[in-house]
Amino acid sequence: MNHSDSERIATVLGNNGLKAASNINEADFVIFNTCGVRQMAEDRVYGQVHNLAARNPKPVTIVTGCLAARKDVQRRLKNKVDLFCEIKDFPKKIKKLVIPSKVEGSTIKKLDSSTPPPSGGFAQDNRDYLKIIPKYKNGFQAYVPIMTGCNNFCSYCVVPYARGREISRPAEEIIMEVKNLVKKGYKEIVLLGQNVNSYKDHGSLSPSPLSWRRWRNAPDEGKTTNFSQLLKKVNAIAGHFWISFISNHPKDVTDEMIQAVAKLPKVCECFHLPVQSGNDEIIKKMNRRYTAKQYLNLIKKIKSAYKKYKPDKLFSITSDMIVGFPGETKKQFMDSAEVMKKAKYDMVFFGQYSPRPGTTAWKMKNNVSKKEKARREKYLNEILKKTAFKSNKKYIGKTLEVLIESKKGNFYFGKTRTMKNVKIVKVHPVESSQSEDAMGVFNRVKITKANTWNLEGIRTK
Ligand code: SF4
Q1: 58 alpha carbon to ligand 1 midpoint, in Å?
Q2: Same domain, 325 and 297
Q3: Are residues 387 and 449 in the same domain?
Q4: For residue 430, how far is its CA from the centre of ligand 1 (angstroms)?
Q5: Residues of the chain with pLDDT under 70
Q6: Of 372, 394, 416, which marks where a domain is finished?
Q7: Which atom of ligand 1 sits closest to the CA of residue 247?
Q8: For ligand 1, is residue 154 a contact (CB within 6 Å)?
Q9: What is the pLDDT of residue 201?
């Protein structure tokens, strides 16, 4: 989501005549689009802002993203930062910024917003910010936010405080953006949101800050689009492209969604379902609202649907796991290990618990030592290595569609529809045959070798 937000920031600045500096030391403007999920990310911002403040002249320094609204961060960086602003306010607030003398002397007198003027309250502003058409990270992969914010208040997470409540983007607007991207030749569309599977567009009904709960629970008037229906609409757009989506909350996964994901031909066969812990008491303390048994039952349903509807039966299940949550005993931790063995993940993103100011878990005793957290992560990683390798071995001998993403030396690197990384020896140049550039092109690749974290193969076309 932060990558996608940065693309929007780049658009606003670019539309006002600013160009990206080749490195931070040459920049007149430095914008930190911050992440507050872990302390480490936060500490890097402090370090870099302090370094900039020592420069003469000091560049205009802006802090946006998760840390921008935190009072303790504002106090700590007082006099060093020119503007703290929430991401949704960025286009508006940037207008009021004093332009440094270096820029004032040039043709740029004042930054301006490229967004349409807000037409409503808080929620409407959020939607306006999402209307900015960003400069995408490359010419073939695009992040398309479908919603922002979160209502779940997991006890360790800052997102609901940093981004506010859930707001879904109108389906029509999303479809329009994807259609344009596909027309331009984009091959992978990533539908983004903190909790994509709670997506709900009520058509003409508008949310407001006071009525979001009523709005979210409003009855279906025949115009409502939920996440499964949105997937169907995006899938119906003509063209050869992949659809993927992140992230999901287990409590919002419905049978309708599982069926849609498994049946729709353009939706990639990779389901990311964060579990965070395998112990019911810890899951409860995390305020996640499911049990390990319910979670594993969902995994079972997802796997059966993929096996039923996907002819080659290849799919990936990935997850997020926190180790060392306050009070997590060794016995409780072993329940996480048990879930990992049963779910047989293809990939898991581990996080050693890091207390975040303002969250409910901040007040809990962070009593698992750093060393023990590292040990627990390593233990789970060993389980992951085995399940990932076993899953990768199923690919040997299969010929699959691979999207080429990069080149290093004589090798190209791409990924399968199941989000497995592939190292390729020979690549078909391009569909257009105009250029030798193979980036962003689908290739048929025969998998010849499976490693723990990737596959190897040769181009067959
Ligand atoms: S679902 Fe939980 S972890 Fe995910 S963004 Fe919302 S509060 Fe954070």
Answers
A1: 36
A2: yes
A3: no
A4: 40
A5: 91, 94-129, 203-222, 427-437, 461
A6: 394
A7: 4
A8: yes
A9: 87
